[in-house]
Amino acid sequence: MTTTIHISALDGIINVNSLFTFAVFVGLAWSPTDPNSSLVNDPTSPCAAGPSIVENIVSFHVFSFSSFLFSSLIALALKQALRISKTSGSRAHSNHLAEFFVLVNKNSFRDGMLASGVGSVVGSVFLMLALINVVQFKLGTLACGSGDSFAAVVPLVIFVSSALLIYSCIVLYAFFGC
Q1: How many other C-beta atoms are found inside a 10 Å radius of the C-beta of residue 173?
Q2: pLDDT in tens, 52-95
Q3: How do the residues of the chain divide into helix, strand and coil, expressed in percent and rounded to 5?
Q4: On the CB side of 167, how many CA atoms lie within 13 Å of its CA?
Q5: Number of domains forming the structure of the chain
Q6: Counting runs of H as helices and runs of E as strands, what totals does the chain give?
Q7: How many angstroms separate the Cα of 21 from the Cα of each of 69, 85, 120, 126?
Q8: What are phi and psi of 40, to 5 degrees?
Q9: Buried b (16+ CB within 10 A) or exposed e, 1-20
Q10: 147-177 helix and 106-139 helix, angle to the nearest 10 degrees
Q11: Residue ranges making up the domain that contains 145
Q12: Residue 161 domain-assigned?
């Protein structure tokens, strides 16, 4: 039973990371200097974003991608370890109960789940930072006090931070409670 729950949790991590990785690729494919963009940044504006913000957009997307990839690879490795251990355990024992028991080091498994969760959280933070920089590029820098920028960034920071706090609490509960 717990093996099925663990595999389902790992599948969930992999699926969510895949969606976020797709979002990162879309973000990297988008060119902030493309004049055909629907919201064109006026470079003559005193609130115009400088080249460092554009560099941060790309950097944060790359950091986010690498964090999601790290998390997904750890989750896939744990899932494979569960399946290999389950298969070898059922071959070693002739009774039917053996296929429900998995011979995986519990501490290593918990550490892997924690590492995968941390990778997802770090990737989400970098993706949020990339989006904040996209907003600054398109609507004006936050330092300038642009109301449109704050209207876009504040809900993003509140919702993403709240979701990450809830996710982190659940991951830590599973880490210490398993």
Answers
A1: 10
A2: 888 898 899 899 989 999 999 998 888 888 777 766 555 544 44
A3: 80, 0, 20
A4: 21
A5: 1
A6: 4, 0
A7: 8, 29, 11, 12
A8: -95, 130
A9: eebeebbebbeebbebbeeb
A10: 180
A11: 2-26+47-177
A12: yes
Domain assignment present for 32: no
Q: How far apart are CA 106 and CA 102, in angstroms?
A: 10
pLDDT digits (tens, 9 = 90+) for 103-162: 667 788 888 888 998 999 999 999 999 989 988 888 888 888 778 888 999 999 999 999
The token pair at 175 is 């880490």
Contact 137, 49 (CB under 8 A): yes
Amino acid identity at 72: S
Report the sign of the C-alpha dihedral through residues 29, 120, 50, 146, in that order. positive
